[in-house]
Design goal:
Helices cover 29% and strands 20% of the residues. It is an alpha+beta fold and 236 residues long. β3 and β4 form a beta hairpin. The two termini are 31 Å apart.
């Protein structure tokens, strides 16, 4: 079931090979659902979810090359600043978080990258804003624009053709990063459009379908019936 992700990285999210992988998965999911319904006496609840979307990638950006050129990685064993990349995002950590001189040097280097004519950088976060995004030790978090992917190689050029054709990890507000959620089975209203939902809503929704609850969950039950709803037409 991981073949779609692998192929989208390798040949791009909309390549013929990726579409073929998706069609093959569709057939496998049909077999899984049929088997579940047989073993469950015709009663089975099916949830199709993904953890991220995909964007095409053309250019690799090496933030470590940027830091090396700024003189912050003269000694590979004791770099003053280092970038940890994950597709369309990278967290930059300082060897000494209290080193103001290094922090200012990193900021200058990132702003120079942000001014590149190719415009690889979407935005840069610092301080508490950066740490709130899941990077507790990051001094800077750099979000790339779709089309660019973080490379990590400090010895090469800053920009070069990407070795992958698809990537994720970009700003979650970007439409290509949207994941999928499809529900089917008893308790799921036919034809209901859930719209754009928060990923944290998935667990409490599935919990209720399984006859239990997650009272301390941050999300909400997407299929909860409003108290004022009395007819099927009001549930759509």
């Amino acid at each position: 079931l991981g073949s779609f992700d692998e192929e989208a990285h390798s040949s791009g999210p909309r390549s013929a090979a990726t579409v073929a992988a998706l069609e093959a998965l569709d057939g496998l999911l049909g077999r899984l659902r049929a088997a579940a319904e047989r073993s469950g006496g015709g009663v089975a609840r099916f949830a199709l979810v993904s953890d991220h979307g995909f964007a095409a990638a053309k250019t690799e950006v090496s933030l470590n090359a940027v830091l090396r050129q700024a003189g912050l990685q003269k000694d590979p064993r004791a770099a003053l600043a280092y970038a940890w990349g994950a597709g369309g995002v990278a967290a930059i950590q300082l060897r000494d978080p209290k080193d103001g001189e290094t922090s200012r040097a990193v900021e200058r280097a990132l702003k120079a990258l942000q001014a590149f004519p190719e415009a690889p950088v979407l935005r840069i976060e610092t301080g508490a804003e950066a740490r709130s995004q899941g990077f507790p030790r990051a001094a800077f978090v750099v979000y790339l624009r779709p089309g660019f992917v973080e490379g990590g190689d400090a010895d090469g050029p800053v920009l070069r053709p990407a070795t992958v054709r698809g990537a994720h990890g970009y700003d979650s507000a970007l439409a290509p990063m949207d994941a999928v959620l499809v529900l089917a089975g008893p308790g799921v209203p036919e034809g209901k459009d859930l719209g754009r939902v928060d990923m944290r809503d998935v667990a409490p929704t599935l919990a209720r379908l399984l006859g239990t609850a997650l009272p301390s969950a941050e999300g909400r039950d997407l299929l909860a019936v409003p108290a004022e709803a009395t007819t099927p037409s009001e549930l759509t």
